[in-house]
Amino acid sequence: MDHVSSSGEVAVKIYNCDSWYYHDIKHLPEPTRQLFEEYSGIPSEQVLDHIQHMRSRAFAIYPYPCIGQLRFLNLSLSNHPLYPEVISRLRHQHLTGELQSLSIDGQYSGISYQHQIPQTFLDLGCCLAQDLRKLVYDGASPHNLYGLDVERKFIELSYELFRDADTLKSQFVIDDMLRTDAEEVDLQVPQNAKHNESVSPPNVVPLASLEGRVSIIAANSFLHLYDYSDQLKLAKRIERLLSPE
Question: Is this model's pTM higher than 0.85 or not?
Answer without folding.
Answer: no
